[in-house]
Amino acid sequence: MHIEGSSALVTGGASGLGLATARALAAEGAIVTIVDLPSSRGAEVAAEVGGLFAPADVTSAQEIAAAVAQASNVGPLRVVINCAGVGTASKVLDRDGLPLPLENFERVVRINLIGTYNVLSQASAAMAKTEPDPTSGDRGVIVNTASVAAFDGQIGQPAYSASKGAVHAMTLPIARELARYGIRIATIAPGIMETPMLAGMREPARESLSSQVPYPKRLGRPEEFAALAMHIIANGYLNGETIRLDGAIRMGPK
Q: Which sequence positions are flagged as catalytic?
């Protein structure tokens, strides 16, 4: 799909996977709207890529509606990349055998799953009203972010695995529904990536994680996620699929 001069919206675009993808989209001539929290570096990143900043919480219908409208005002909205998410680890039972507070589980699911759905539903409504791209027939492409935890969830990841597993599970039915509008949807399931979620980890722990990856024995790079997202946009036959990006890792129980 031709994206030069088109509008692209990236959630979680102020850092990590979203930032790398925003840069890649801008390099191809897209007008990028960065959606991130008001406290983020969103305005700085938007200035860097020559785009816009829409401060918003992905779980807010009103704030995301405003962000989608802002992105649609600068060009036909063709691309949405959902990277906003959290990775809070919590076991079902704590050391005293007491259950995880329900609000902890609910928060992760609300941001990772409901936030993703909120963005893609409102963005797809805007995409459906645009004229198809003359080179591909696509009206738009939506790329969501799951995780290998959707398939190989570890101890301490019930909320995270549940949320990311649901992002994977809804990919195909939504792709089937949006096909009538010429909107494609795919999901990337990254492995262990060099993102702010791992920034506070000590070097021995990072090396331990890297050693678990069969090949290449290192953490994944945000630019590799961005490259796959750009390929999904360009490859018109990729639809309804979840693609693992993980160096062949299969996570152990802990």
A: 160
